[in-house]
Specification:
The structure holds 2 protein chains of 2 kinds. In chain A, a hairpin with a 2-residue loop joins strand 1 and strand 2. Chain A is built from 24 helices and 2 strands. Chain A is globular. In chain A, helix 1 crosses helix 2 and helix 20 crosses helix 21. Chain A is 70% helix and 3% strand. By secondary structure, chain A is mainly alpha-helical. Chain A has a two-stranded antiparallel sheet with strand order 1-2. Chain B is elongated. Helices cover 78% and strands 0% of the residues of chain B. By secondary structure, chain B is mainly α. The N and C termini of chain B lie far apart (55 Å). The longest helix of chain B is centred in the C-terminal third of the chain and has 31 residues. The model of chain B has no long low-confidence stretch (mean pLDDT 90). Chain B contains 3 helices and no strands. The chains are: A mainly alpha, B mainly alpha. At the A-B interface, helix 24 of A face helix 1 of B.
Amino acid sequence: MLLLIPLLPFVGFLLNASFGRRIGKAAAGAVACGAMAASFAVSLAAVWRLLALDPESRVITDRVFSWITSGDFSVAFALRLDPLASVMILIVSGIGLLIHVYSTAYMHEESDSEFARYFSYLNLFAAFMLVLVLGSNFLVLFVGWEGVGLCSYLLIGFWYQKKSATDAGKKAFIVNRIGDVGFVLGVLLIFVRFRTLDFLEIAQSVAPLGPETVFGTISVITLLLFIGATGKSAQIPLFVWLPDAMEGPTPVSALIHAATMVTAGVYMIGRNALLFSHAPETLTIVAIIGTATALMAGTIALVQNDIKRVLAYSTVSQLGYMFLAMGVGAFGAGIFHLYTHAFFKALLFLGSGAVIHALGGEQDLRRMGGLKSELPITYWTFLVGSLAIAGVPGLAGFFSKDEILFRTFAGGHTLLFFVGLLTSLLTAVYMFRLVFLAFYGPSRAAHAAPSHAAPSHAAPAHPAPAHPAPEHPAPAHPAPEHPAPEHPARHQAPRHQAPGTHLHDAPPAMAIALIVLAIGSVVAGYVSLGGRFERFLEPSFAVTASVRGAALQPGEEVAVDRGLETTLMGVSSLVAFGGIGLAVYFFLKRREAADRMARQFAGVHRVLEHKYYVDEIYDLAVVQPIQIVSREGLWKTVDVRFIDGAVNGVAEAVRGSSEVLRRLQTGSVRAYAASLFLGVVTVLGYYLWR
Amino acid sequence: MPTLNHYLLLSAVLFAIGTAGVFVRRNLITILLSIEIMLNAVNLTFVAFGRAMGSADGQIIVFFVMTVAAAEAAVGLAIVIALFRHRESLNPDMFTQLKW
């Protein structure tokens, strides 16, 4: 039964990949969505079965076949459903389904074959992600791990005619490979140490051990696994691929870069919670990296002008939060934030997709504005998402973020707590900056000018790249904060929509997805009331709790904590409102104040706008040296001199010696006869007188 | 009474004469004749051994050699005639085209 969950989307992939372009868009979309819906239904049924079990023994294992058996090494292709996996499959298949539905409208302008290709990739992605979260051992997880990497490459580079998109796809793939080196090394070390790759068996053999006080094997293993997680989940130092990944279609950003794939690293740590809690030093590193990433990405998000890029950095920042939670040992809180984040980040991405869709491919915030009245559904759902991510009380993000901050503070990591709080403030500010720039204020887009003149014969007749005039000086209200867009606006792909197309709100398929996600963003947090969510997840980390032993004695401790938690709750809601207030002041009421700030701290502003020059530093420190070594060393020396030299040298030697030896062939029969005679005499003489 | 050694000595002398002829003479027909002398020197060795050992094998092989020699002479002379028609010469040093 568990096998069906990833198998159904995989069948959808096969169908769409084989016949998709012949059956037309409606059928291709129906196949893809149907596969996801079926997978979601099976997931629900599986989780239902899991819930019927006794809380302590909530594990369903489905051994599909014995995969590799070699000596004492034996790995089965087995799927295992436990509380942690059940949360993940519901997120992946449920939110995946909504994104599929949304995509049917969003991608409608693609040709039939492109449309089918898109949906086949999307289904394949979901299939791999489900394998990843259901896998019962590291090798099965790794299949999904690499599979989602492949699909992200395919989907980011979906508009392959566009160089920046293919570059972004390659960047994502290569950066992920770097992380995977660490991951694979970690898995190998696990096998060397524990002689098994099964999660449960590893947990059982590690449970009796005490936490490593000195940096030992387990610390190395977990650190290597964490390197893999930084690649997949976009943490320092490997986060650079995620913002570039916004080159893909927007629903892809929602699916891959918000709700599912990037959470794989968090999930992997949660899955090996026991292992990680035996390596306190690694956990400290995880927490510090997570917090640093959260803060750094939050500050970058403050000044970005591409609507999707802001969201991308926001994702990186929220992932940092999850790693912070993992690092302080609050695995349940981290997974809880993963779960709520899936709702509102998918919502925000899909909302931004609706904006981009309505504006015919415009992604630059400086050319938006005043969309509130024109795109009411998008606006309201987007607002809900922003409130949720900012941590306004009562919405999903509040519960999870507060839980993480609380656990950080309670764990005694005061510095991390304050940085987390600062990041929380930044989150509120940049999200509402986004909201105010896009939906409020005067309409700054050029769409007003040539638009309503000719809405009727608009779309297909225009072969032109069709964007609201990039060079347009954005007349009436030039976003004063950034007087001249120095990057001539990145554009959303070869979407052939005329600049003048009438602004329209999200079509039904998109609206449904937005509304469902908005409802989810509001109510998703309530499952955690009274610690129910964490208690549900506990069996997955169960042995963890017993290891930490004395530290966790429910009863009285919780009672003590409640007061503190309420205080912190108040603090974090104050912070959320403070952030929103700041955004209201700077980006709604007094925009010139924001400009003044930008001018006053021009240096800081520039550094943030260039994302701390991380890309440039990597280019200088890694890319250029590799290119130089490859070109000057490997190509011009090793290849040209040594390898080509050896091959050509052999040929030269043969040619030179033949030049000499061919003189022997004189053409004179008597010379041949003489040499024959001499030869016979020599041979005979040798045998006679030796 | 000549002994085996006498026959072998004669055969060796004949063979040497034939070999010298092949290398020294510049006429293809003479060279062919020299080859015949070498073959017959070998034939002599065969019969001499055959007689000394009291076996017929040596004599049988001589018959084979004679047949092959006859065939060889026929082919050789045919080639010589063909060459002469081409080059108006019988000197083997004239025929050195087949070289590097």
